[in-house]
Records
---
Amino acid sequence: MKLAERLKQSTFESPSQESMLNVMVTNSWLLSVMAGTMGAFDITPAQYNVLRILRGSHPNALTCSDIGSRLIDRTPDVTRLLNRLQKRMLISRERADHDRRVVEVHITKKGLDLLKTMDPAVAKSIDQLGSALSASEHKQLSDLLDRFRTSG
């Protein structure tokens, strides 16, 4: 569905406004689909993002601030997000030996196993969501979005 149809708006103030609205509507749609995929595993997209980040650093730990700086959706409440994951035993946290003020976070075997179980479903959703574009169009879109995001 075209943006104008989706928003029931035939004109926009500028092409820039139209493209920004299109990015926002598309983001909402993508998050909704991915939340459905991840919800089947009782995981939110934000929790999945933390687990994905920790899997990327495994077996090394990351600090809470390292995780916060890498999140796709920068939430100010990383601690609460980590609390939920720790309660489910998907991560572990411990004070750093070198500085007791620093909390180091590890993904657990249970967290790694969950991601491994989720990988096929997440990949399938990503493939379905992106099926309307070719590989070169995906590359072009990524390049354009990088330019868009870094221009301000």
---
Amino acid sequence: MSQNQSTKIEGQVSLYDIARIRALLPHRYPFLLIDRVTALEIGKSVTALKNVTINEPFFNGHFPTQPVMPGVLIIEAMAQAAAVLAFESVPAKNPDEQRIVYLAGVDNARFKRPVVPGDQLILQITVDRIMRNIGKFSCTAKVDGQLVTEATLIAALQGN
């Protein structure tokens, strides 16, 4: 298996690399905020990761002497992982059309500790429901097994 392939086992996907993520999401540098999908169960859940490095452009201003990943970007990373799950769970009616998932709501967001360069965010997203191209997702972000952020996201799938 080449590095740009994903493995499907009985409805589960064990790995999406950056090439597969880029094929699904319209985001590009500096706003593509997930590096890999490590698990995906269609219609149910996804686990993705974001490697946080000092080379991220936002660290130049947030904060130069004590770099901290902005909470809104952690939420955005969660939303991108949820978008991968939504794209894979809701088949495209027109495969040639670019689909976009718009973030429509953020509820109950809590930030437990700062995320800093060198951390690896593990994003765990679970579908609460998807109806008529509107999805509700329960999301957590962890570093070294410790919860750093949690939120409920609502997203609208367009172009389907």
---
Amino acid sequence: MAGINSLGGINNYSWLFASNNQKKNSINQLWSAYGNFQNNATSSLAGLTEVNSNLKSVLASYDDAKSAFQSEFKETMSDLSASAAKLKDYNFNVEKEGAITTTSETDKDGNVTTTTTYSKDMQAALDTVKNFVDDYNSAVKFFGDNKDVSKRVELLANTFGDAGYRASLYESIGLTTSSNGSLSINEAKLADTILNDPDKVSSILGKDGLAGKAESHISFANSQADSLFPAAKEMLGDQLDTAAVYTGKAYRNMAAYSNMGNLINMMF
């Protein structure tokens, strides 16, 4: 008489010619084996369902992080591109008369308050530089804050943070460079340089200067856009492969095994 295999199956067709008692014993053994297997399968399915749910949650978080990163990247590059384009060809030759006006007031205690006002042209020139500096600093911060995301982002953090090597040149017109490459403005010094040496300001900040350099950085960053944020497999590593195994074919097979008893029940 045929025996029962590890899954409760019948080894060969000789079972068909066995005695009724032998058949009864075989069926009982088969059904017992199936019952044990079904319990294990049900437990495994519950575990796999949890793995599947966790995987979906992790991938959803990954998608959210990637979407947020890409959205901020595009906005940061777009803003800087617009302000760099304006600064690149800006005409810093302002009307000297009334460009900078300084007034002083003394209160009853002898304290002197000095107020500086700028003409419309001078204020427009200063605002153009300020807007660029704000957008440039946003780019420096974005890449600096996200440099651990990937090697490519780290490279861009270094690229946008390279303003320091021209620090003395920028300082000469009123821009100070910090250790991370961000810029700050000495408004009084910048206004004075615009008034007295506009060509110098144009040379340092224009198409052959900081604005042109920023555009080069932007072009390089945009060329890397699709590769900056790592793929899910790269970020999650072997854990993603393991989860995929237990939520793919294995998951479907376990479901099929757990229903095998229905077929056996119909046979008998």
---
Amino acid sequence: MPRIPVHTIEDAPEAAREGLSDLAAKMGKVLNIHGEMAHAPVVLAAYRGMQAAIAEHGTFDARTREAIALAVGAVDECDYCQSAHTVAARAAGWSEAETIDIRRGGLDTDPELEALLSVVREITGQRGEVDDKTWQAARDAGWSEVELAEVFTHVAVNLYTNYFNHYARTELDLPQAPALH
């Protein structure tokens, strides 16, 4: 059971209505996570601020962003984010089987991206620490220091939503991601 009320645009606090409305327009509806974030406008504003920074300054394409989100969600065991980003990853061109491979930790079809996702998984699972061998493997795969710095922001925004969903006990209002068995 959710700990935080899910707001509609009409009953959200005034300071959150515009942001919630913008997200609803983008997503096609008010998602439970966004409706819960709106309960404390600062939570929604912080999330939107991170998203805006990525939109303005980020260099990764949609497929890479969604692969990062799937990897973080899997490490964090966030059912909501794995489900949401499976839908988004499919829209970005990933097959369902590839989304499962990414979540499992082995995207054999794209070794370059898998090297980046190994960094992502270590950042997530080891509280920001990344082994030198993992870092160097990503560099050897062609990822620049700038890209490896940028990936941290993508991990951070996904940690933010993953942890919020755990904290708020957000109920799933999207199709469930396929099981990893």
